[in-house]
Amino acid sequence: MIDISLVLNGKKITDTVDADSLLIDFLRDHKCYSVKRGCETSNCGLCTVLMDDTPVLSCSMLTARANGHKIYTLEGLTEEASEFVGFIADQGADQCGFCNPGFVMNTIALLRENPDPTDDEIRAFLAGNLCRCSGYEGQLRGIRTFLDSRKKEA
Amino acid sequence: MEHKNYNAINKSVRKKDAMQLLLGKPVYTEDVVPDDALVVKLLRSPHANAIVSEINTKAAKLVPGVVDIYTWEDVPNNRFTNAGQTYPEASPYDRLIIDRHVRFVGDVVAIVAAENEKAANKALKLIKVKYDVLEAVLDFHTAKDSKLLVHPEDNWVAPCEVGGSNLRNLVASEESSQGDVDGIMADCDIVLDRTYHTKAYNQAMMETFRTYTSMDRYGRLHVISSTQIVFHVRRILSHALGIPKTMIRVEKPRIGGGFGAKQTAISEVYPAFVTYKTGRPAMIIFSREESQLAGSPRHEMEVRVRLGASKDGKIRVLDLYTLSNSGAYGEHGPTTVGLSGHKSIPMYTGSLEAFRFNYDVVYTNTMAAGAYRGYGATQGIFALETTVNELAEKLGMDPTEIRYKNMLKEGMIMPAYYNELASACALDRCLDHCKEMFDWDAKYPVRDMGNGKVRTAGMGMAMQGSCISNLDVGSATVKLTEDGTFMLLIGAADMGTGCDTILAQMVAECMDCSVDDVAVFGADTDASPYDSGSYASSTTYITGKAVEKACMELKTKMCTIAAGLLNCSVEEVYFENGLLKRINTDESVSVKDIGVKAQLNNPQIAEASASHSSPVSPPPYMVGMVEIELDKLTGEVSIIDFMSVVDCGIPINPALARIQAEGGIVQGIGHTLMENITYSPEGKPYESSFMQYKLPTRLDMGKLRVEFEHSFEPTGPFGAKSIGEIVINTPAPAIAHAIYRATGVWHREIPITPERIAMSKPEDNK
Questions:
Q1: Which residues from B are below 8 Å from A125, CB to CB?
Q2: CA distances to B159, B320, B473 from B87, in Å
Q3: What is the pLDDT at residue B5?
Q4: Do A38 and B207 touch (CB under 8 A)?
Q5: B533, B263 contact by CB (below 8 A)
Q6: Which of B279, B549, B614, B679 minimizes the number of CB atoms within 10 Å of its CB?
Q7: Distance from B696 to chain A by nearest Cα, in Å?
Q8: Which 57-96 residues of chain A touch chain B by CB within 8 A?
Q9: Which residues of A98-134 are buried (b: 16+ CB within 10 A; e: fewer)?
Q10: What is the pLDDT of residues B634-645, one digit of tens each?
């Protein structure tokens, strides 16, 4: 067992975890149910969370590695996500929704790093986020419409 | 065609659950259940065909936290099917909860129930099993009438006569034909005889199979499962456990994708058995590996097409034989295969003089197949559309021209489709539209890009159904609330498709209200009216019509209540623009007035339920065209553009219809270029994770463009047909066609990987 202390969605928490505890399980145990497991091999991107503002796959990270770091899940970034996810909803591209939290988290990371990405930059940044329902094009249309609307407002 | 100004139909309304899903709210099976459930894990067979001669669970049961372990000795000996189909099912009763005879690598040997995952995993390692390993049936070509039997047991039962026999490894077989097939074939200028092969693709929905079970406050089994078929699951569990249906409640929360995989009860029986035995809540979550190796994938099929044509490109006769591999169990085996002929041949009704369609479905010692979007049509359409493309290339005709010469048109009777009338068919307009949008004449020629790469194009057409005719039952209950809003209860399952929203749009249209004024609940066997479930592309077409009927009935009841309020006879009251008006007067009451009155000294219930079935299954139609760039050296294929035009009748929600099409096309691209299931010589599948089973990413699908050609289906709700399945059918023939154009090689087996392209040459064409 290992004692850890980290900041989860802005709140400091301390806990004792198994040495082999994975961050995804720790987060779900702490009621961050947005974090989904879609594979066990780091291939799908569903479990994406931000560690010190960098997107990481929580299924492939030991909880102990998060010790002393700042973790954000979608539960903690609802406001930032709400700026753009409605545009994806308008395309119907949410579909089954199981990939949405990971995809939305990675989109947040993209837009923080590159506020005005091209379509190809969006595709490349989000390439690790699988979606079996939407065929991706509707997700792209949603992000594109958001970016265009933001430009108009500016 | 009918044109109407609708209030809520043909509008791209946001999905009712969209913001919950996009903001990651806890709405899926694993999120909504208590934490104290027993963890259920399955010990699976490492052998493709074996008898469990000894099994010892003593040491495993001593692991702290292990609650119980069950083997073949502990389960009932009544066979059932896991297939979610209308009773009596076409699929054979060939399953036990645990069978002593294990029939594929991954078949269940023991069920472990433990307080936590670590204890369950440890117990799995400590169960000692001795197997009598038997020779396995691994080649589906030689399975029929083999001396080795997959199901030698004497309590194998086929509830329906579908031409199967467990003593022949035969799940089903049938022969059908019309006209003088052999005579016309002999008279044809050109005869093509081609065989095509498609694989057992996994649906790979993002949420794997999972089920939670507990005993409710009445001592009934309460099941919360990620399923498309709550009512069928209730029946399957009743059969498997031998308990009455009144003792079982099945509900679904939000579902993380299905695509047909969850039209089979893959995970439900195991925790249900644990809860039934222990009385405690139990939960199973399949790993991705389990979903890959013991799921419910597409039926591998080999389709032989014999096509007879005149030299001017008139397709006169078609003769199809399909050999389908059902794997170790027969779920959906007898039904999927039929679509490979009945939903491909009718596209050529325009010129066809005769057809024959025969099939065999066999057992082998591989993963049991099930339902996957397209359901056999996908396999048959790849075969037939590629044959027609081969004919066009052989005759030097443009493949669009050969379609125009032969295609089905509105008003024709389709002999190969149970003599149904093509009552709404815009296939010809889909082709016109797609050809122009895609710029076919410019993209079809092979263009050398000067860097070892060539660009060219290919095409395919498709059809599907809109339900299972004379079988599916869709139902809806619509209730009026005292504030004048409505509640819609359904037994169909929104698995991400948006059917909750689409059906709410229909209520809004019928009741002259906003979609926001309609709440939807489903699906729950205790609360929902009976519905066969969400499959066979049927929800919009069948359940939608039930919604329309229920709304009609509710309006009649509301008129009765209004008559009381207006002190007139019910015959004088009519519904218009959200008001109940008295004829020839200015008097009216609002829907809200009715809602209030319904709860105050009132004997007339303000709700209505209706069911619907259809004697026909009107096909949607589609044309798909692809432009590829192929690297001649490496064999790599890049999709540049995939464009398609769909006739799904009147789309109720165009945005959701478009997403269905785009998602289906990308799945089809995956099947054609990269996804594969292969087996070791011992029958162990290699593609156990997303490392090996590669799904298309957003870098693999090029640019998609989907448009619609409207037709008006008179038997559908507001003119609608279906969209969910047809959309997966055009990529395989279109891409295989383009690869031929680029390389001169016809690849008649998918996936067509870069290796296969690089290693093949035109001389290999037979």
A1: none
A2: 9, 29, 11
A3: 84
A4: yes
A5: yes
A6: B279
A7: 8
A8: 73-75, 78, 81-82, 85-86, 88-96
A9: bbbbbbbbbbbbbbeeeeebeeeebbebbebbbbbbb
A10: 999 999 999 999
Percent share of chain B, pLDDT over 90: 98
Q: Which amino acid would we find at residue B283?
A: M
C-alpha span between B50 and B390 (Å, rounded): 44
- Is CATH 3.20.20.140 the classification given to domain B300-411+424-461+619-764? no
* Residues on chain B touching A130 (C-beta within 8 angstroms): 206, 690, 695, 697
B34-136+205-293: CATH number: 3.90.1170.50
Q: For B428-443, how does the pLDDT look when each residue is reduced to its tens digit (9 = 90+)?
A: 999 999 999 999 999 9
* Number of structural domains chain A divides into: 2
The whole-angstrom distance between A151's CA and the closest CA on chain B is 23
Whole-number Å distance between alpha carbons of A75 and A81: 10
Residue at B696: amino acid letter = P
Give the E-state strand segments of chain A in sequence order: 2-8, 11-17, 48-51, 54-57, 70-72
List every span in chain B annotated with CATH 3.30.365.10: 18-25+469-612, 300-411+424-461+619-764
Distance from the Cα of B20 to chain A's closest Cα (Å) equals 9
Interchain proximity A98–B206, CB inside 8 Å: yes
Domain C-terminal end among A76, A108, A136:
A76
Residue-averaged pLDDT of chain B: 97
Instruction: Report yes or no: B249 and B526 within 8 Å, Cβ to Cβ.
Output: yes
H runs (alpha helix) in B348-426: 377-395, 399-406
DSSP-based three-state secondary structure for B109: strand
Nearest by CB to A44, which of B25, B659, B690? B690
A–B: how many Cβ contacts below 8 A?
174
Using the Cβ of A132 and the Cβ atoms of chain B, whether some distance falls under 8 Å is answered with: yes
Phi and psi (nearest 5°) for B574?
A: -135, 160
ipTM over 0.85: yes
Spatial distance between the Cα atoms of B207 and B295, rounded to a whole number of angstroms: 12
Q: Which CATH number fits domain B18-25+469-612: 3.30.365.10, 3.30.505.50, 3.40.30.10, 3.40.462.10?
A: 3.30.365.10
